[in-house]
From TrEMBL:
Uroporphyrinogen decarboxylase (URO-D) domain segment(s): 32-41, 149-165
GO terms classed as biological process: protoporphyrinogen IX biosynthetic process
Matches recorded under HAMAP family: URO_D
Site (Transition state stabilizer): 86
One GO cellular component term noted in the UniProt record for this chain: cytosol
Record's protein name: Uroporphyrinogen decarboxylase
Physiological role: Catalyzes the decarboxylation of four acetate groups of uroporphyrinogen-III to yield coproporphyrinogen-III.
One GO MF term: uroporphyrinogen decarboxylase activity
Gene behind the chain: hemE
Binding residue positions for substrate: 37-41, 86, 161, 216, 330
Compartments in which it is found: Cytoplasm
PROSITE patterns per record: UROD_1 (PS00906), UROD_2 (PS00907)
Amino acid sequence: SHLSGEHPLHSTGVADSPMLKALTGRQPQHRPVWFMRQAGRSLPEYRAAREGIGMLESCLTPQLAAEITLQPVRRHKVDAAIFFSDIVIPMKLAGVDVDIVPGRGPVLGAPVRTLEDVAALPELEDSALDPIREAVALTVAELGDTPLIGFAGAPFTVAAYMVEGGPSRDHLRPRTMMHADPEAWEALGRWAARTSAQFLAAQVEAGASAVQLFDSWAGSLGEADYRRFVMKHSAFALQQVEKYGVPRIHFGTGTAELLPAMHEAGADVMGVDYRLPLDEAERRLGGGVPLQGNIDPALLAAGRTALFAHTDRVLEAGNAAPTHVVNLGHGVPPSTDPTVLTDLVEYIHTSTRK
Ligand code: CP3
């Protein structure tokens, strides 16, 4: 095996947990649920732990990253932890000048727009990932039978921040670059794919039992451009972790038209955003694909009655898939009342228990 003898996936507690069962198409005891951005500003204990400490520094302090990863598992009894880190951490560890500006997102010191800019990018040294390995090891030591999900940003989403130099709405610059300077785009896509693959491998080797590739902004692409300029880079990142045998989830927003291509890129489970009902997603995928999703985050603030009625519809549509991991259609909004999330987890567990 490519995993150490002590890896959590070798324990039956993790391997037969509801989360791992659903990710691998086996029927779980209850429908597993976790939330993208379950760690974060919705939790008072997160705000306390982060007091006076920058986002990137928090991610690179192993004890703190482990503690923040564990907080939502303790509080909400979710079926999986997601490693507390960020899609820009691999570029930070490679030596790229990047920071996360509160309320805004990742901002680079200098955007990456030409072939020369790409050629000047530093490579990520494997030893630079040691704080990540340490944080993952500390986390899984505390998690018991609850699996840890590792993640990385998909090459397009990462490259979109690099080319824009910061967050943008339409990702015009990277979409222009593909056509105007395909050589520079190709080199950047390969850099981002290598770097994301290294980040994923480090988390899996240190104890993550599943991975999720976040292509949050892929929905800004048409299918033709996705297939021509993006898919092979995501496929590379997914292929690099295939040898570990951990389930690979692929998620993006606004990807209704891209689901089959994103699945073809090499995913085992498809994450679906809130815009497309799961039964329709399954139909577009041709059947047989485990799905993850897709409670509308807006419903978290709509009151329990509306939220649970919406959840019933999501669970019902999820029956169209061989197995279903419940999640939101995108991340937990920072303003969310955390007691709503705790109650939602209990509601999903009790209404789906076999
Ligand atoms: O709980 C989890 O989901 C795990 C941790 C996680 C974070 N970022 C923590 C974080 C994960 C998986 C990510 C991935 C990530 N980062 C994505 C893909 C997922 C998605 O949401 O689409 C993207 C696009 C980023 C880039 C990024 N980082 C943005 C847009 C922001 C928000 C900036 C803001 O202040 O609103 C960040 C910062 C960030 N990453 C926060 C967290 C908890 C907020 C930091 C804070 O508390 O101030």
